[in-house]
Amino acid sequence: MSDIATRVKKIIVDKLGVDEAEVTTEASFTNDLGADSLDTVELIMEFEKEFNISIPDEQAETITTVGQAVSYLEEHAK
Amino acid sequence: MELKRVVVTGLGALTPIGNTVDAYWAGLASGTSGAGPITLFDASKFKTRFACELKNFEPTDFLDKKEARKLDRYCQLAMIASDEAVKQAGLAEGNFNPDRVGVISGSGIGGLITFQQEVMNFAAGDGTPRFNPFFIPKMISDIAAGQISIRHGFRGPNYSVTSACASSTNAIGVAFDLIRAGKIDVAVTGGSEAVISEAGVGGFNAMKALSERNDSPETASRPYDKDRDGFVMGEGAGILVLEELEHAIKRGAKIICEIAGSGASGDAYHITAPHPEGLGAKNVMLAALADAGMNPEDIDYINTHGTSTPLGDGAEIKAIQDVFKDHAYKLNISSTKSMTGHCLGAAGAIELIACIKAIENDTVPPTINHFTDDPELDAQLNFTFNQAQKRTVNAALSNTFGFGGHNACVIAKKYKG
């Protein structure tokens, strides 16, 4: 697992209070990990903070699974 | 319309001298001070460096980690105390109609710690807004009522009452009226406050409202003492389950006591100073007595607002003497803030619980930390100094006053069928 994936997973476990094992690449924040709309906004903010980037709203809306978050961040993280 | 009778069937408390109702009462009856150096933040540069904080309290002992993180401390306290009260009341599926259970909470300020943290984060940044999406729903002063209703599925009237330090007493008054009027069967009510933070202590310090007796925190809250120098900030929650009498009997609930009446008034005088003759305080006690259909002679114990400030304590005593005349000398009077500190918006509910336990135990909790008589106060009055006193307590009155000139009063009495 890439360093980015590890950091993403850690944020998700911490913020959503889920088991590490549940945080699979395919897992959807809302359908599988119990996030509501505010949790999702918070996750994006935490990714921005952790990776020191700004994720535009229209892009943020397309990040709905763990895998999508990891790919986006691998591409954009500084 | 005939008014319904209202009884208390559940109590919950989180206080600086005990984290359950039983522990709180044990602290009250033994005259324990809840004051100590501030641990919740670095207060080394503050004029006041002590407060009445909760002891050995971990929110995650009661709430799951994910849930706790989304709640301001004030709301965590309300949730935990309401769990205790609802459990004692024995409200269980099938023995109540959730549409007829209201939640009326009170908080003077709301989530000040959350507000402070979010603004400090913003100020430390480069101007880019990075506010947490939970900032507003954590901070707003009504969210405790919402969260309690979600936790227990209570779908009746749901809102909060804000009147500074009178908030939880006003909230109880509203809940009482809703049940009396037959609009709901049960109410979870009371309040909570948690503002021991830089902004909270700094703000009250700037008003010169807080005691600065840093060399002796545990004796700083000394209502009616000649050398009192301000209040000691406390934090906590007090929650009551109020219930329509017939409803309580029908489901076999244990009746703790009856709520006899309540009152509310305004000083219309000054934002923070009490009316010098205690006019608003006098009116609110008269209103509560009239509401209860009781005479001054029916009251055995008054739990005063008595915050240990030079002006406030005297004005309230004047008002008591105006209302109770000669009977004032037969009353027990005490300020349990000498032990708990001033829990601000939660104070009224926490102190009404003290009154209810006094009724239950026929014991009046003391005003601790009395060293020197104040020559301005009538020494013939019984302030219950330093030690609890045994006496029959048929009825007790709880006064609570808030900045803005808000006065609120509730009378509880033994339930006698």
UniProtKB/TrEMBL annotation, chain A:
It holds the Pfam family PP-binding. Carrier of the growing fatty acid chain in fatty acid biosynthesis. Residues 2-77 form the Carrier domain. Keywords: Cytoplasm, Fatty acid biosynthesis, Fatty acid metabolism, Lipid biosynthesis, Lipid metabolism, Phosphopantetheine, Phosphoprotein. SUPFAM superfamilies: ACP-like. 4'-phosphopantetheine is transferred from CoA to a specific serine of apo-ACP by AcpS. This modification is essential for activity because fatty acids are bound in thioester linkage to the sulfhydryl of the prosthetic group. 4'-phosphopantetheine is transferred from CoA to a specific serine of apo-ACP by acpS. The keyword Lipid biosynthesis applies. It is found in: Cytoplasm. Pathway: Lipid metabolism; fatty acid biosynthesis. It comes from the Bacteria. This is Acyl carrier protein. NCBIfam families: acyl_carrier (TIGR00517), PRK00982.1-2 (NF002148), PRK00982.1-3 (NF002149), PRK00982.1-4 (NF002150), PRK00982.1-5 (NF002151). The modification O-(pantetheine 4'-phosphoryl)serine is found at S37. Its main location: cytoplasm. PANTHER family: ACYL CARRIER PROTEIN, CARRIER DOMAIN-CONTAINING PROTEIN. Belongs to the acyl carrier protein (ACP) family.
UniProtKB/TrEMBL annotation, chain B:
The keyword Acyltransferase applies. Pathway: Lipid metabolism; fatty acid biosynthesis. Its EC number is 2.3.1.179. Pfam families: ketoacyl-synt, Ketoacyl-synt_C. This is 3-oxoacyl-[acyl-carrier-protein] synthase 2. The keyword Acyltransferase applies. Gene3D superfamilies: 3.40.47.10. GO terms for molecular function: 3-oxoacyl-[acyl-carrier-protein] synthase activity. PROSITE patterns: KS3_1, KS3_2. It catalyses: (9Z)-hexadecenoyl-[ACP] + malonyl-[ACP] + H(+) = 3-oxo-(11Z)-octadecenoyl-[ACP] + holo-[ACP] + CO2; a fatty acyl-[ACP] + malonyl-[ACP] + H(+) = a 3-oxoacyl-[ACP] + holo-[ACP] + CO2. Signal peptide: none annotated.
